[in-house]
Design brief:
By secondary structure, the chain is mainly alpha-helical. The chain is built from one helix and two strands; from the N terminus they run E-E-H. A two-stranded antiparallel sheet has the order 1-2. The termini are far apart. The relative contact order is 0.05.
Length: about 80
């Protein structure tokens, strides 16, 4: 990798940079399937959240409309 020069400075050659870039490419290549899996995870969580927050509202509307229909039925007979 990097070597120490004559005056104590660190010398980084193009070969060193190339090796590190290749390692980085390999790391990114191994992370790509994980990114796809994380995106799928996030989509599933979002759909669960939508279901969770819409259920109480749907239940209230269903109960309210049933009660209103019952009241209408009772008052018209």
């Amino acid at each position: 990798m990097a070597t120490l020069g004559e005056g104590g400075e660190v010398v980084v050659t193009l070969k060193d940079v190339y090796i590190e870039v290749r390692r980085l490419q390999d790391t990114v290549a191994t992370m790509t399937p994980l990114a796809t899996q994380l995106a799928d995870h996030e989509n599933r969580l979002r759909s669960t959240e939508r279901w969770r927050y819409s259920l109480p509202v749907s239940l209230l509307l269903a109960i309210g409309s049933s009660a209103l229909a019952t009241v209408e039925l009772i008052t018209h007979h």
